[in-house]
Design the sequence.
């Protein structure tokens, strides 16, 4: 990261203000009117729409290896995803992924 | 005994939220560690957790800051991750819309995944709750969660300063995100949205300023919503 302190604080303030406005939106301004169904339908998918796209390039081309795919990180990603999917437990998935990564790095690294 | 009931709803909210503490504590600690490892000061790390108070968006912003993405793209991506909270706001407004403005303003700050989920479930299973009981329950759920979020971010930030950078912490953010997303993949619509996001993001990774991620996010939202609509029509 090559950002100055001012830029970092600006980012924090803008995300904070924007997030607050999103949280306040219907509570504050619109009262107890209901959102149209099609809007709710799209909002329901925001986390699964953004996060996988953010992670995919980090898994496929990790910066730590200079952007070339790396067996330890690919295995850790696959294990995290599978354990999280089957167990529905965030903590179990993080632990399994971290253990796989540590093991993979000693094995391949 | 009407006066003692809001009080017991406060305790019920706090008790219902306790299991979430098990997730919040390591998640906050991890954010503190990764943020300071990435080069944020302890004050900036705490600033994130207090001002933004939204784990997934904080991790998303942090990753893009590590990648030196432009400020506008970092802010837009983090806000896109938080768009779901408009939905939370809309469902809470149905139950709390009659509260005074200043109370709704405080509710908005604490409108997070856990308080929203616990409260709306409680309001729907007990439709006879009064407005004060609803408010008190809502704040009860945040009583264990918000302090844990702040305190363990600080613990992580202080620990992070002591961890040497050669540990493979570059991959802590991807693992955290995968662990967050995997349990959300409950339906075919969620799977299709996630798959679209991955494919479009990888295909457009060459676009400047992280624009590919925003395109991926919005196309995945549309795919998810359409698949949802299709499944609903078929089962109707």
Sequence:
């Amino acid at each position: 990261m090559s950002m100055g302190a001012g830029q970092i604080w600006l980012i924090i303030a803008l995300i904070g203000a924007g997030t607050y406005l999103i949280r306040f939106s219907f509570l504050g301004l619109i009262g107890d009117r209901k959102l149209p169904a099609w809007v709710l339908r799209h909002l329901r998918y925001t986390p699964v729409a953004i996060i996988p796209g953010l992670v995919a390039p980090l898994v496929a081309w990790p910066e730590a290896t200079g952007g070339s795919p790396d067996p330890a990180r690919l295995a850790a990603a696959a294990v995290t995803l599978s354990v999280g999917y089957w167990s529905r437990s965030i903590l179990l998935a993080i632990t399994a992924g971290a253990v796989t990564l540590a093991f993979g790095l000693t094995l391949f690294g | 005994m009407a006066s003692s009931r809001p009080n017991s709803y406060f305790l019920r909210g706090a008790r219902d939220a306790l299991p979430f503490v098990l997730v919040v504590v390591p998640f906050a600690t991890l954010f503190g560690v990764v943020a300071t490892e990435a080069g944020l000061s302890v004050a900036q790390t705490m600033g994130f957790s207090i001002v933004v108070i939204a784990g997934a968006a904080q991790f998303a912003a942090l990753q893009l800051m590590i990648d030196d993405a432009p400020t506008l793209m970092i802010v837009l991506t983090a806000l896109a991750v938080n768009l779901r909270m408009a939905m939370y706001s809309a469902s809470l407004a149905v139950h709390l819309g009659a509260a005074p403005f200043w109370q709704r303003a405080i509710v908005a700050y604490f409108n997070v995944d856990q308080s929203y989920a616990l409260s709306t479930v409680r309001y729907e299973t007990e439709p006879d709750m009064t407005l004060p009981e609803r408010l008190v329950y809502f704040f009860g759920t945040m009583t264990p969660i918000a302090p844990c979020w702040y305190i363990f971010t600080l613990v992580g930030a202080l620990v992070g300063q002591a961890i040497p950078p050669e540990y493979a912490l570059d991959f802590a953010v991807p693992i955290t995100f995968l662990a967050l997303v995997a349990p959300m993949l409950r339906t075919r619509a969620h799977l299709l949205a996630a798959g679209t996001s991955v494919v479009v993001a990888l295909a457009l990774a060459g676009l400047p300023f992280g624009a590919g991620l925003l395109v991926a996010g919005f196309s995945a939202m549309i795919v998810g919503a359409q698949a949802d609509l299709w499944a609903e029509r078929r089962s109707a």
